[in-house]
Amino acid sequence: MSEDKLKLPKTDKSPAVLPEQFEPMSTSLNLPLFEPKAITRKNVGTAAGFDLTPTNPAKVFGLPKKMFLEFRILSTPCSVIRDVTVETKHKLEKAKDSSSKDSRIVLTGRAGCGKSFLLHQAVQYAKSEGWIVLYIPRAKTLINSTTTYTYDLRTQTYLQPQASYRIVEKLLTVNSDALSTLTLSAPFTVGADQDKSKVQVFKEGTKLSEVAQACVKDKSFQSACGTLEVLMRELEGQTKFPVLMAIDDFQSLFHDTAYRDPFFRPIKSHHLSLPRLILEYASGKRNFAKGAFLSALTASDTQYTIPLELQDTLELGNRHPVSPYVQRSETLLQYASGLDANAGGLQNLKVPEKFSVEEAQALFEVWKDDLALTNSRHDESFMAKYVESDGNPRDFVWKGVLASYAPS
Amino acid sequence: MLRRQAVFSLRRCYGTTASLRQAAPSSQATRLDDLRAGILGRTQQPTANTEGVDDDVRKYKVPPSSPSFYTARPVFYDQVAQLERAIATANNALRRAQLLPLPAFARASLPPIHPVWQTKEEMTQHFQTKMTLARYRKVTKLLNELNDYHRIANTAGVNDLANKIYSIVSLFESSKKDAFLARGKRKPVVLDVYGRSYTVGKRKTSSARVWMIPVQQQESSSAPLPMTTILVNNIPLNEFFPLPADRERITRPLKVAGILGKYNVFSIVRGGGTTGQSGALAHGIAKGVVAHEPDLETLFRRTKLTRRDPRMVERKKTGLAKARKRYTWVKR
């Protein structure tokens, strides 16, 4: 057992004892809770911990990989409140009462500058404020052929039953209270395509949570795609709860997927049901009556790089010169820019490249209090790590604080 | 100068004549010509000027200005004689001042001297004779002794004597003395108009040109902690050096000096690989730190930060696969 190595060795008088700090689920971090009233200008540069309830979006929807690993090392999941957090909160407050068409935001910035963390903070904020939250932390799992797919003749797209099932399940778990207050506006038939005897009809006025429950119970994933579609339609129409659709790895939806069609050609992402759904909300073709679409790019993925269409429309700037003769896909350009040019299409929210010194100090203290530092000269190592990482949040933690060669 | 002194001292012995007063050329050679012309007599009509000279020459036997006239190298021997006289005078003066003979402990406590005499070629010009090694050694031996007396007088504080000795000794010092004494030492780094230092660091085959400038401090009290920014080839440090080991190597000089937020660094690195470039950059930063803070020079020398790492790739040798690797030994 790994805990045996951490125990203080036994003596004549006492047995081997595991120090209190190394007990599982013990934490020496006393952090304030990450809640909407804590996100203020005054609190910029302080760390706040996320709540650990079972319906927390982080637990249910999952997390981006790097964030997941970080929270596994930390004794409690937490993050630093930055000035962009406050800015995003204001944006979401404005978006609460307007259509998602006006609030389609993409978080951009250098690799490791905190886009995924900011998106996660927005999700936590929205959940606390009572929004209906749909969070997809790793959008590339929708296109890397890890779930099943079937061709649907009616819609002429490829459906993804397994992935749709997972999303319905998670949507229900996180938003069960809200979904139990919302009802169907039109009758909905399930299983019409398959076995006639197993057709289930939901009347108008049925709770959405019941519809979702029925889908979750049916483990064959047959009804998942249809249920998800109906749920999304209902959420679009209702005005009781604002809806947040939060997508991480957004740039991966602009690539060819790993799925193959019968001619072994890679299937385009907009021909798969779930990526198409996301792209439609992103481009404004479909909108929530109240809510927002928030997405984050992943700059450090070499398999799914940020495509030229997004680079052009979001004006991200190219490290290397790009030829104007390189072909950009018309369809993807449409999805990137949105149908209504007047609305400006996708908004680009630039996440600052560097931590400010206060924010870095807050994060450093979190790791220090969590007994992660080997060097006892804290001031010097803080300044050295900040300089070495040039303020980049990811490098500051992973290649700075946690990867230091400096002896104590 | 010595020649004039010799003339004035000899005047008492030989007496002055009108011809000697008249004829005061700058060089010994023209005087000799005049005298020779006067002694041998001129066949041409004597001019008004020379007539008096001829008369004087016939009346008095014009003695040469110095006894070394009859040697082949009058200037050389004059100078040597003057040096010997100066040594004697200085010796007497120091004895009168009870500075000679100097006890062993006092002599040991004297500051070291680093004389840089003119080269043989330069002295050839000075003495107007070809300076062979023997002559050069003779002269430098005398000069060294005089220099030693100068050192004693200087240390003792007998300034007028020290100045007089120095006035003689300095005639023979090389013009390249400063350059020679500063050989092998690092050229001091000068800060430019904007307070920037420019230094070069090297490691293996990499070189780094490093500019360091102090961070502009904001006056307001609520200003955040100033932080160093390091740009390498116009790219931030964390993008250029992904390895934590390389990054720590680069910030080590700043950590050791304790000046992590004080200076901004801009550098251009070239050649070699990642680790070589990081070492070169660290070397350049260390030199830049010493340029800005001269008090840290000893500390950095002791911690070997300003030392250019001499390790280079060892050459391949014949009969070996690589620098050290031998081919597989075969028993038969």
From TrEMBL, chain A:
Major location (coarse): mitochondrion
Cellular compartment(s): Mitochondrion
GO cellular component, one term: mitochondrial small ribosomal subunit
Record bears the keyword Nucleotide-binding: no
Top-level lineage group: Eukaryota
Transmembrane spans: none
InterPro entries tied to this protein: P-loop_NTPase, Ribosomal_mS29
Pfam families xref list: DAP3
Entry's Gene Ontology molecular function annotations: structural constituent of ribosome
Gene3D superfamilies the UniProt entry points to: P-loop containing nucleotide triphosphate hydrolases
UniProt entry keywords in alphabetical sequence: Mitochondrion, Ribonucleoprotein, Ribosomal protein, Transit peptide
Family in the record: Belongs to the mitochondrion-specific ribosomal protein mS29 family.
The name this protein goes by in its record: Small ribosomal subunit protein mS29
Organism of origin: Candolleomyces eurysporus
From TrEMBL, chain B:
Similarity section: Belongs to the universal ribosomal protein uS9 family.
Signal peptide: none
Region Disordered, residue ranges: 39-58
Biological source species: Candolleomyces eurysporus
Name of the protein in question: Ribosomal protein S5 domain 2-like protein
GO biological process, one term: translation
Keyword annotations from UniProtKB, A to Z: Ribonucleoprotein, Ribosomal protein
One GO CC term on file: mitochondrial small ribosomal subunit
Top-level taxon of the source organism: Eukaryota
Keyword Ribosomal protein: yes
InterPro entries given in the database record: Ribosomal_Su5_D2-typ_SF (IPR020568), Ribosomal_uS9 (IPR000754), Ribosomal_uS9_CS (IPR020574), Ribsml_uS5_D2-typ_fold_subgr (IPR014721)
Any one GO molecular function term: RNA binding
Record bears the keyword Ribonucleoprotein: yes
A Pfam short name: Ribosomal_S9
Higher taxonomy: Eukaryota, Fungi, Dikarya, Basidiomycota, Agaricomycotina
